[in-house]
Amino acid sequence: MNLRSLDLNLLVILDALLDEAHVSRAADRLGLSQPAASAALQRCRHLFHDELLERGRGTMRLTAKAESLRAPLKSLLAGVTDLVEPPELPLAGIRQTLRIAMADYPALFVTGPLQRALADTAPGLDLVIQPWHGARAAKAALMDGSTDIAISVFADDDADLQRDEVLAERYVLALRPGHPAIPDFGLDQWLAWPHILVSGRGEARSPLDAELARLGRTRRVGLVVPSFGMVPDLLRGSDMIAMLPSRVMATARDLVTLPTPIPVTGFTLHLAWHQRRAKDRALRHVADLLAAALR
Description:
Elements: H1 8-20, H2 23-30, H3 34-48, E1 53-55, E2 60-62, H4 64-83, E3 96-101, H5 104-121, E4 125-130, H6 135-144, E5 149-152, E6 161-169, E7 171-175, H7 187-192, E8 195-198, H8 207-214, E9 221-225, H9 231-236, E10 241-245, E11 256-258, E12 267-274, H10 281-294
Parallel strand pairs: 3-4, 3-5, 8-9, 8-10
Antiparallel strand pairs: 1-2, 5-12, 6-12, 7-10, 7-11
Helix pairs in contact: 1-2, 1-3, 1-4, 2-3, 5-10
């Protein structure tokens, strides 16, 4: 291929088309007319010998070829930006939107401090806290560029991702003041009352149940909810017991906190972003603020 015939602007438009999967939205994002974006899509189809966007039921979807182009295209454009580096703006002058993928834990206790810190240091930065679909989906979103920062338990290293350990968490038990299980609390009292389990997938079992089975014990899961934020009010109005990450209790100081009667393994949270964004000052600033809030 003759690179002299390749228009770099075409790849910028293609990046927006693949992100939005919608010609009009891509045009609006780039300040183009819809006919201009449509014409660019036709040129991209000719360049890659593929439809790239196909019509579905009332929407458009990416072809397999288009999906395979997303990550390398993001990396290529990021590399060009690094090559032609613009004058560095002060943080207060940057206007940018950053998308953060995280579950309600830790969003419950980092979103407020992050927003307040940005108001003082980088007021032009806007945030989108994205719906949580699990660590695997978050990692895929970092790779294809649809998420900028993710906070989760990322068990394995990946050469394409910057992954920093920011929090080692432990579990505690939470229950209402005056709960009849509190006097002489132990394993029997813990298992005598129904439990609240937090599961984004609606699962009624967790690794704790396997550990209890190893001890020849079981528990009753009386309620499964999708978020930690729902639990404190449910505990206040019932005799249920919940096992929660210790940081959650900072938002519910009126509840009683007890240690688990048996050892329960905690977890490590990681803060991650793609290596191609290593020189993105806005992203690094937000990542630093998140790390400070988590540590």
